[in-house]
Structures are given as C-alpha cells and as structure tokens.
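Batch manifest, entry 17 of 40.
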Amino acid sequence: MDIKSTVRSLLPEKMINFLKDIYPDPENRKIEHAFLQYCTQKNLSEQKLSLKQNILKYVNTLEVKNVRYRFSEDTTMESLYASTFACLIRGFYDDISEDTRSKWLDYFNQCQHPIDGLFDDGIVNDTLYFTERKGYGARHLAGIIINAYDRLNGLPKYEFSFLNEYKDPDKMIKFLSRLNYRKIWGSSNEIMNYGSVMQFARDRMGMPFESALEAMYDFLLKKIRPEYGLWFEGEINSKTTMYEAIRGAYHIFPLLWYDQIEIPYAEKCLDLLYHSQNKWGGFHNRINSSACADIDAIDPLLRLSIQTQCNPHKINELLENAERWILFNQNPDGGFAFNRKGVFDWGGQKALFSQSQHSNIFATWFRSLTLQLIDNYRNQNNQFRIQTPGSECPLFYERK
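Output type: structure tokens
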C-alpha cells in the first residue's frame, strides 16, 4: 500500500471530504470550471433538439461494416458489446431498416453458443469474460442483448441454458444467500443479469423460470431493509454507504417493476435519493459522476416517484439539474463520455476502451437511456421503445 492509500485508510470519510474541499483536485477544478461555462453559454433546448441527429451521427462513425461497431474512436477493434449498444441506440430513434434488422439478428445469433446460450464474438473472450458475473462478461452481456432482441422484435437461436443451474427455487435461494450485500452494487448486478434474462426467457421463449423468479422476489422482499427501503447490509452512515446502497437498488427495482410487484418502503428510499444529488446535478460525492452513477439514482427516483406520487416538485427540480449535468457530458462528436475524468477500460480489453473525457458507445447508450426515461416520466408514457426486462424496463404499463 502506498503512502497516499495508507493515509486515506487512517482518516474517517468526513475528514477526507473536508480536506478535498479545502484542497480540491486540480482536474476536478477544471471540470467544475468547464461545467460552469457550459451552464452560462449552452442553450439546453437547442442541444436537445439536435440530440437525436448528433447521437446517430456519432454512432455511424463507429460502424466498421455490416452492423459491426467499434466501442470508441480510441480503438480499431469491433466488438459484440459495441454492436449491441449501437442497436439499442439506433432503435431509440427508429433508425433500423428491415434489412439492417435481419443483419443484426443474424450477427447476434452467430455469436451465440448452442450449449449454454451465452454470446461472444471471438474478440472479447478472455477467461474473465466467461467467469465474471457482475458488471462485465458473457452473463452481463446477456442481460443487455435481450434488450436488443426486443428492439429487433426477434429471438435468440438457442435457449439460455446457462440459467438452468438456478431453475430450482432452492438453488435460486442459495445463489442469493451467498451474495455480499455489504457490496450490494456489484452483487445486485449479478442479480439483474440472471433475473432479467430469466424474465425474457420466460416471456419470449417459454422457458420454465416462473418458480425461480417467484423465489427470487420472495427472498428480496424479505431481505430489504425497512429503515432504508434498500438491500445494503450495514448502517448507511456516510455518502459512500449511501451511494453503494442506492446503486444496488437500481439493479433490483426493475426486476420487481417488470412483474408489477410494488416496491416496499418506497418513501424511505426516496428520502435518501433526495439527498444523493450533488451540487452539479450528478449523483456522486464528487463532481466526477459517471453514466452508471447517474442512472443508478435517476431510475429508482423515477419509479418510486410514480409509485408513491410523492413530492413531484422536488422530483422535477432534481431531474432538471440532472438533465443539465448529463448533457454536459455530451462531446462535440455527438457521443457521451462515461465521466469527465479517467480512461474507461472495461475488463482490461483493448476493444472496450476510451481515453479520458472521450465518448464511447456504452456511455452514449446509458446516458441516452437516462434522458429517455426522464422524458417518459415527464410525458407520463413510454414514448420510446423501452419495453423489455432489465435496464430498459418501461416506467409505465397497464397493471394486471
């Protein structure tokens, strides 16, 4: 451990934040200065009017050939991850012809393994890709590519047999019980990966996962903390634990929402969400709020606001600030940066890389999705093609 890490480990979080306020990071100061300039000089209405055109222009620059895409301008390699995000983005704006739709379905199906139903492109397929179960890898991609199949109104060639290990309710309970709820952000990602694909496989492919999903819901509804309305194990007594808890809930709420299960203790969770936005509009304790951090707070905020009808004026104020921050992260090339500080290096893969402050297609999808959800909330309908399990679970539906 280096000296800086040693000192940090000895100081309480409040002292660390106090010192950061007195001696702010020079790079953070640059970001704050750029944001203040943006707020005084940029016309948000004009930026929103050209949003679709600029995003699609950016996505088109990443196409290699025949629905194969690069992750960013900083890599020359195509990847299945990038193609999936391109499909989702173009689908937002009805920019997929019938010929392109067929090509995408063929490509996705060519990348699917017949034995387990997982996907890989032969490019991003290292050991970690197949063993990681949280925010990267084959199981993570499966939870996203189902959104693309729904976007294309198509089905995978093979069943999702990798899910069968948790088809039995007892095995599902054992799986959920072994997760680390102190580190709920990562653990809940694993829950969403399996849960959303099970929902898709049940509803689109007729696979028998109803009992496993019911066991999952029962476990999670009993596991939730009444004092917080969240699944974090431990006391929420700092910004670090607050953000960890909120980001964990993001991966679980859509699973319940998709099957129209009311989220308990919603008002308690909203109380924390109200205090999670920073002064710049992002949802991190510093200025460098990422695409993940932002949607991880905004999505629960929207769903719980719809369920409770609580404090709409406060919600709208938070959303107005959040929208400004998100749009600040759009670059002149039309794409979005994951955050405004640090390179993006996903799984250590050269094919999933972007330089600091540069756009990448994952961030562009996630931030576009966040903006779409905000618009849908304001308009009280699902005006875009967000009609699927997982991250793109619709906000509104006809209750059973």
